[in-house]
Predict the 3D structure of the following.
Amino acid sequence: MLPADCSRRLVAELRDALDACAERQRQLERSLRVSRRLLRTWEPAETPAPQPTPAPETSGEAPSPESTPSSQDLKELELLTQALEKAVRVRKGISKTGERHKALSLKSGSAATSATTASAPSRPSGQASCRVSETKPPRGIQQTVVPARGLPESRLLSVGDRTHMGRGSRATKPGPGPRDQQIPPSAALQAPEAFTLKEKGILLRLPMAYRKAASRNSRLWAQLSSAQTSDSMDAAATAKTQFLQKMQMTSGGPGSGLSAAAVEAEVGLLRTACLLLRRRMEEVLSADPADCMQEYRCLLTLEGLQAITEQCLHRLQELRAAVVGRQLGPWPVGRRPGASLPCGGGTDPLWSPQLLLYSSTQELQTLEALRLRLAMLDQQIHLEKVLMAELLPLVGTQGPHWLALCRAVHSLLCEGGERFLTVLRDEPAD
Amino acid sequence: MGRRRRRVDRGAAVGALPEAIAALSRTLPAGPSPEIFRRAKFDRPEAAPALWQLLFRVLSPLSADGASASPAQGEPPSTEAQVRAVKSELRSQGYPRQALAQLPEDGSQGSRELLLALAWLLARGPLLERLLAQTRVRLGDEIPLCECEALARPGPPVPRVEADGPVDIRHLQWLMGKLRFQWRKLITSQQEQCALLGKIHSYTRGCHSDRSLGHLSVAETELLRDAEGGQQDTVLGTCPPEASQPTFVPRIPERGAGEWELVARELQALQEELRGAAEPRRAAWEARVGGWGPEWSAVQRASREAVGLELAALQRAWERGGAAAQPHGPCRLVKSDAGASGGPGLRAAQVIEVLRSREACLEAVLCQLQRQCRQELARLAGALPGLIWILPPGR
């Protein structure tokens, strides 16, 4: 058992870490709920009616509701739309579990013959797992029938037609992909159908009031950020620094303008610096110089590291003097003592909302995964420091169950709690 | 309008002052009227309470719904509490003047000093922009690149019942395992959310009136979805709250001063070791190289430059870690193919690179800490003979 105060502190730290994680999870779940809801069929069945005069770029191909497309065009368009739907579903279905496939293969045998024949043209070319695509489309057809509450008959009719349309369409099969949903579904199908973002998302238009407000908003932000780079800003900046200096001089003590927060953060930085310098030193010392040049470089690196270390020590003394000289205020309650890598903050950061362009879902996932990883590493480093401070002294003083404690501490501190070492008693052979 | 203002500023700044003050009083939360500002200039006592309140609102970090951060209490804190909070906060930010700390706690005096404090805050940093960033409605899908805003905000309130007595170390191991599992869950949830976002952005491509954005965000799509149901008013109210997730806020360390000594000791030890390693090498080098020709000096210079660059890069790793290039505050996510060519906005690929280098740095720090622990434990364990320590297989 660990001593009471040590236990209290460590448990509190770990629980804080868990709470922070849980908070992130809660926010993520909230966002997930919102996004999933948007991607489902939009209930009630009233669709946000597209503006009476849709924008030119999307209406280029969609005929106006008044003109009647030929039945041939209609069917072809329908066919294409459904083929695309299936392609997307197949792609999604490939990642589903195997049991689904088995269940569907049983179903496909008993499915309508028209369905199975119609499944042939929708098999996307180039898909590796042909077996999957055979079993998926029947389910897909069932799915398309369900949402089209208003037009079940017309869909089933088209399924029958498709048998001899199918072969023709294979040649003109478009590449499946979300991009192709730019082809708007046929205008005649605009009648009461449930709205899904996937199919009709491009028809959405923001309300006029919102558009006006949003454009005014972005114009004002642009004005603000351009004003920040104009000449008058330099004059303002110098005026500011002069003012700050005057404030400093009229204050009671000498003061360095540092706050407790800044000092703490810098000390943390210097600790990180020490770690990285030491790491580089160990790298250099363990390397085997192959020739003169490398030897010289090693020497220079060591001397350079020494110089930097001295700078850091000097800075540390300065910080100490600042702290001792002017009693810096107590840490405000609820603040984090210091990040391991705090950012500059002071010098004119950009506060206007910026755009971050990403090109694919994978890229976005990589970005977010990295952000989470950084947060996790940050937390791990903090916990490591706290655990070191509390547990190493305990190992130093041998008590009961010292071996077990040592083993546990080693695992926690050196292996992140993931691995354990083994301790054997070295019994002399009798 | 902007042009006229600039010309005025260059000339007599006095003319623009009333306008500026009026704008300021409109912008600030609980903004005092311009009359209050004027009275404060003459240190009139009746202006003091309003300014105390203003500073309290400005300095106390805002929670998501813009309310002041004392969620435990239903009503705003008392004047004394506000005064104390403002004093403590200003002091910890490094406010130089002692006069502020000496003002009475009933908030009845010191309006001129408070005016100075406000001016100091405005001069130091982008106070107004930061306030704006905290209270504005988020229209886009935002991703915070810099955690500094999150750090400034307190985490969720922690009225926690204190942990009971001593625990076994296995409890700690269990908590650590739970934490690891939570992170893994987080990562998978996050990946799913990214996939969904990608879909929503793709499906609404071409819908946005603003060409540079191109597609709708989740908030905007929700606006349209719920618009039909006559819920327009509530949609903005349920706009996704602060997208920037707060990093955890550990307790105030009870041994804050200890870190300084620790760092000092570590740096001194490092310095000793470096000196011990470098001096003999230098001596040996000089002995070998003593009589070498002038062509050697060019090579030496090249080496010096190369090493200098390497060390500078190393230094950058801990100093402000390249974050100067990053914008603060959240960025709006936009799915776009035209990423390569010009146009405003950051590119995800670049941000990823920066994050990777930061990741490498943090990993190095963690590795180094673990190595120190290993050495220390080995030293302690070595004191006890008769045991064989078999380390777990390497990573």
